[in-house]
Automatic annotation (TrEMBL):
Name of protein: Aromatic amino acid aminotransferase
Species classification: Bacteria, Bacillati, Actinomycetota, Actinomycetes, Streptosporangiales
Cofactor: pyridoxal 5'-phosphate
Function: Aminotransferase that catalyzes the conversion of aromatic amino acids and 2-oxoglutarate into corresponding aromatic oxo acids and L-glutamate.
Pfam families (alphabetical): Aminotran_1_2
Record keywords, A-Z: Aminotransferase, Pyridoxal phosphate, Transferase
Assembly notes: Homodimer.
Domain Aminotransferase class I/classII large as annotated: residue spans: 34-350
Length: 359
């Protein structure tokens, strides 16, 4: 094909890798365990399916742009005023909205690294400068993050628990850090995996943001609530932050089916949290088995485990794929493996056991 002129695109696009969709892997016994995207292994509850089916009768209408019922349900659930809640198409959509509101060339956005892959991608697209602060022993280095703040910093992301390491920062350190960050920086506590936290010292950001106008919390229906396909995320923050996020939302970003499913999921929260408990039990079983087999696995508060495999990462991921288990490799660093059904987890453990390079 002839070369196309791409001069009409912003130069920053040249540094963004093209999107490559994940492949479905199938093992010799027909097994296909998808442990690569930190999804819930549970399908939707009957009550959530019913709500979606009912909402489908109105597909000819635009959704409620203000997501009134969902906003009210979230405000009730978290004990906050409705003006403190903003929605987006997944929490990744909200990240983009926050960047749209705050980022531009010359602005710095600080976050730990390695962390959620979307941070460098979205910050790069915004034209702002990403400032990546290395993890220390797989954990956020809060002192170094605070030290990375300059007059040009406007946003700082703290992913707690951190994707892909699963590690979480505790209340004493986190509150001291939040109090040290200057007012001209908005801190986003990305708590996509909050429901899986069992360490009582890891704080709920919704409690921490209240006395701190420059702190907001990001949550999602994609993980514990099992609605990854529908794309619903939300922010809890002070009205000036929530308003900026509402202003930068693509109109109708949270569709009608997604709103209905999210409301029904909040109604069925107890049932969903029992499923989360089952995943947490599986997480402890998987991590325990890996450690017993000689692997070094950081303690994880999320629905995945992290194996620092270094140069062996891609080889390990390929061996898992050959056994019908898709994991998420980060070349030269390590592999993140989601906690799935007990059978899928067993298939992963068998593949890991068969791999010669235990760490
Ligand atoms: N934050 C973190 C830390 C994540 O790991 C993810 C999903 N992988 C998200 C946000 C985005 O999730 P979603 O857009 O599905 O809400």
């Amino acid at each position: 094909m002839a070369e196309r002129n791409t001069s009409y695109f912003r130069a920053v696009l040249g540094s963004i890798p093209p999107y490559r969709p994940g492949r479905k892997v199938v093992g010799p016994d027909g097994r296909s365990a998808k442990l690569s995207s930190n999804e819930s292994p549970f399908g939707p509850l009957p009550s959530v399916r019913e709500a979606v089916a009912e909402a489908a009768a109105e597909l000819n209408r635009y959704p409620d742009p203000a997501a009134t019922a969902l906003t009210a349900a979230l405000a009730r659930r978290f004990g906050v005023p409705e003006e403190h809640v903003a929605l987006g198409a997944g929490s990744v959509g909200i990240l983009q909205q926050i960047l749209e509101a705050a980022a531009e060339p010359g602005v710095e956005v600080v976050y730990a690294w390695r962390s959620f892959e979307a941070y460098p991608l979205l910050v790069g697209l915004s034209g702002a400068t990403p400032v990546q602060v290395p993890l220390r022993e797989e954990v956020h280095d809060l002192d170094a993050l605070a030290a990375a703040v300059t007059d040009r910093t406007r946003l700082l992301f703290v992913c707690n628990p951190n994707n892909p390491t699963g590690t979480a920062v505790r209340e004493t350190e986190l509150t001291a850090f939040l109090d040290a960050v200057p007012d001209h920086v908005l801190v986003i506590l990305d708590e996509a995996y909050r429901e899986y936290v069992r360490d009582p010292h890891v704080p709920d950001g919704v409690r921490l943001y209240r006395d701190r106008p420059n702190v907001a919390v990001l949550r999602t229906f994609s993980k514990a609530y099992g609605l990854a396909a529908l794309r619903v995320g939300f922010l809890v923050g002070h009205p000036h932050v929530a308003e900026a996020v509402r202003k930068t939302m693509v109109p109708f970003a949270v569709n009608h089916l997604a709103q209905a499913a999210a409301v029904a999921s909040l109604d069925a929260e107890q049932e969903l949290l029992e499923r989360v408990e089952a995943t947490v039990k599986e997480r402890e079983r998987v991590r325990g088995a890996l450690v017993a087999d000689g692997w070094t696995v950081p303690e994880t508060e999320a629905n995945f485990v992290w194996l620092r495999l270094g140069e062996d990462t891609l080889d390990f991921a390929a061996a898992c794929e050959n056994a019908g288990v898709a994991v998420r490799p980060f070349a030269g660093e390590g592999a993140r493996v989601s906690i799935g059904s007990p059978e899928d987890n067993d298939a992963f453990l068998a593949a890991a056991r068969a791999h010669p390079k235990r760490r």
